[in-house]
Amino acid sequence: MTFALETAVDPSKLRRVAIEPLSRVEGHGKVTLLLDEQGHVQQARLHIVEFRGFEAFIEGRPYWEVPVMVQRLCGICPVSHHLAASKAMDRIVGVRQMTPSAVKLRRLMHYGQMLQSHALHFFHLSSPDLLFGFDSEVSRRNIVGVVAAHPDIARQGVMLRKFGQEVIRATAGKRIHGTGSIPGGMNKHLGATDRALLQADLPQVLDWARQAVAIVKQLHAAQPALYNGFATFRAPMMSLVANDGGMDLYDGVIRVRDAAGQVIVDGVADQDYLDLIEEEVKPWSYMKFPYLKSLGPDDGWYRVGPLARVQNCDFIPSPLAEAERREFVAWGHGEPVHATLAYHWARMIELLHAAEVIATLLDDPDVLEGELMAGGMRRSEGVGIIEAPRGTLIHHYRVGDNDLVTTCNLIVSTTHNNQAMNEAVRSVARDYLDGHELTEGLLNHIEVAIRAYDPCLSCATHALGQMPLEVTLRAADGSQIDRVRRSPHGGFTRPAAA
Amino acid sequence: MPAPLLVFGWGNASRGDDALGPLFVQRLPGLLGGVQRQRVELLEDYQLQVEHALDLVGRERVLFIDASVDAAAPFTVAPVMAAEHADAASHALSPDALLRVYGQLHGCDAPPCTLLAIRGERFGLGEPLSDAAASHLEAALRWARGWVGAV
Question: Which residues 118-177 of A are in CB contact (within 8 Å) with B?
Answer without folding.
Answer: 120, 123-125, 138-139, 141-144, 147-148, 151, 154-155, 157-159, 161-162, 165, 175-176
